[in-house]
Known about the structure:
alpha+beta, five-stranded parallel beta sheet
Amino acid sequence: MIIAVIGGGAAGFFAAIHASGPGIQVLLFEKSPKLLSKVKISGGGRCNVTHRPMENSKLVKNYPRGEKFLKKAFQHFSIPDTFSWFESRGVPLKIEEDGRVFPKSNTSQTIVTCLEEEAKKLGVQVKVSNGIKSIKQKDQGYVLDTDSGEVVVSKVIVASGGHPNLSAYDYLKYLNHNLIKPIPSLFTFNTPQEPIRELMGVSMGDAVVKLEGTKLSYRGPILITHWGISGPAVLKLSAFGADWLYEQQYKARAIIQWNADLSEQAYTEQLSNYAQLHPNRKVYSHPLFGVPARLWEHFCIQAEISEAQLFGQLPKKLQNKLVQCLFCYPVVMQGKTTFKEEFVTAGGLALEDINPETMESRLHPGVYFAGEVLNLDGITGGFNFQAAWTTGYLAGKSARMSLDG
């Protein structure tokens, strides 16, 4: 009995490992010459394995697409299970302040080695540079037309990842699954006309970014880059706003509240109080509200506050302008940039065609799906990998148990 796994990424390897069992041959096909490439580059080469343990009801809120689907899947394999699985195989994990989880080794190679060694130990046959051209049903199994010839298998697990173009899913056409047009998720906002780009490298630890004309907003760190604005708040907003931003052709206005804890009134009151306490201090050279000096100077220029202006003599009109910069700073978005090399897509196989308890196709018994090939995606912070571990585990286990039965 043969189980074929298509895709040599996180979900594919996890599925192959959990599909393995006595009397079962697992073949893992990867069209490129490289395995686990996204695992290697994740988290700046450290691999953001998952997130700090949380209740599943809270965990699913980190998925712009797939929340209800994953709520059922996480009942079978969730964050604590990920911790147990890796740590029981000699890979201790650590939780960082922001909730992200990394191997204590601080290198993604630890995760790669763990997955590869586990697959090898279980006898998974890995076939690199071996793409799949089509999958067709035959008798009680399936025929895979691969780059190295036809292979007949009992079960198929598709974990081929997300793709920017629908044509990349052509090899699945004989299965007649519904496909959701893939669009980008997790990207930075390009602001080519904004002078703020000159402050690249400046960041704020807790800001709020909103998309004007929508109810979409996200709170978190923000970073000014050569291209525009980035950081967790922007990336998470891009994920939840992926569909809307795509419809707008990535042309929109974002509004930044630079200190998430302060209201417009709080800014005004604290500026007035500071002016009473320090009337002879220059506004330009005394940043407030945790704003970095370069950014504060930029706000002063935008508010037409001169370098000589004293707090005690700051006209109400200029104070209001400064408050507007702090509380609702507008930037015009004209395009996007993929976040580092971590391409994430919204779109893929429609979830209504898949059983969330087993990852099995509702249209073709014996075909299972896992990972980003499905129309589900998470925000940054280890959530996409957690979805890969969970769906890979369920697909692999379900395929194996169907043969055991």
